[in-house]
Design goal:
Order of helices and strands: HHHHHHHHHHHHHHHHHH
Strand content: under 5%
CATH architecture: Up-down Bundle
CATH superfamily: MFS general substrate transporter like domains
Largest sheet: none
Helix content: over 70%
GO molecular function: molybdate ion transmembrane transporter activity
Number of strands: 0
CATH topology: Growth Hormone, Chain: A
Number of domains: 1
Transmembrane segments: 15-34, 55-75, 87-108, 141-158, 179-200, 212-232, 258-279, 294-313, 325-342, 348-371, 383-406, 412-432
Distance between the termini: 74 Å
Family: Belongs to the major facilitator superfamily. Phosphate:H(+) symporter (TC 2.A.1.9) family.
Structural class: mainly alpha
Protein name: Major facilitator superfamily domain-containing protein 5-like
Radius of gyration: 22 Å
Number of helices: 18
InterPro entries: MFS_trans_sf, MOT2/MFSD5
Oligomer: single chain
Length: 446
Amino acid sequence: MGVVIESEIWEPNKAVYVFLFISSFFSIFLFPARTNSNVFDHAPPVSFLRFQREFLLLYSLSSVMEGLWAVFGEFEFAYYGLNKEQMLVSLCIGYAVSLFIGSFLGVLSDLVGHKKLCLLFYMLHLFVSICKMVNGTPAIWLASICLSLTSSIFSFSFETWMIVEHDKLGQRQDSLNDMFWLMTFFESASFIGSQVLGNYTIDGDVNKNIKSVWNVAAVLAVVAIIYVTRGWNEASKRTMFKDYSIMFHRYVLSDKRIWLLSLAQASVHFSVAAFWVLWAPTVVADGREVSLGLIYPCMLGSKMLGSTGFPWFLPGSLALRTEEYLVYVFIIMGTVLSIVAYDYQEIGLLVTLFCIFHACMGLVLPSFARLRTMYVPNEVRGGMMTLSLAPASAAVLVFLMLRVYYQYIQNSTLTAFAALGLFSAAGCMYVLKKWGKQLHQSRYNL
């Protein structure tokens, strides 16, 4: 008699979503005394509150647009008829563009103004949407180039805009710190929202309705372009490249603390990029059937929870400097990826490790933003951010090429290198903690 083995698709327990929501609620609302002054217990001027609401709304809209392109992942490539090798080639093209073009977009933003770069972000999204609706398959390689540029712009331009506007409104540093974690919180929530929006748009038939997602992305891009064009007034930039290069050399290249911060950022960026390339293949290894669409919100919910922990580490809450607690956070993240790289894991444990990793990332992102405010002048902030990510893009590109063309690198090996990058970031923070004591505190009032 034959034996029938029923396959079961693994899904996370629904209680996980409830736990993440309640934990975030407790972290935000029930412990307001974590800082002397925060976004919930003081009354900033009406102009700043208006700016805060409008900025977070626009940033959330932009995050939804970024997330829409990642909702269906490999399925969209398969829809175009691409095989696995072509998908990896598309990734290589994207990281090559990020390395050779995206690395200099921050400098361009500092020179010509952040408004122009944000408009370019929306126009590229609109262009990709129109190309996919009109051309279909031939547009996939062009789409990879454009979306890589949008990701590069997204990684720095909105933060630099927010910093400039914050200073223009004359707000205190604690308001800026609140904006850092709120950006991470809303970004993660918007990525989850993009998944919901994408699934709602296709209405259960991906093959038939996938083009409707591009229509939604085009509409969102048009709305954002209209808003930025009419509702965002920015003083014209008159910085000459010669003056900028002198300033960049004086305040960035000549400061060993910024070199350490840049190296830490590059290490973390490499590790996160490697994670997002490998997490799905790791989960479904050995033919396991898993509902990836339900694991994705778990990780982003963990990231939201981690971002709400950032105010706990501000002055007046815990007696830890930013560089000091980041050492421990990076060690935890590196240990998590080391476990993933070392051995086969049961799915439940694997997803738990992924959630811990993202909870740490939720704390790391606003912490890095705060460190940049401490060490990097606003005039060169964009250039510092993008140029510091160039080594990470180069490393990911090299590993992907070795994986695609030569089959030299296994997934576990790349995960191990990602863990090593996080341990390196911990070392950078440890040294920066010592060197950072030389910082002139009165200038930044932190």
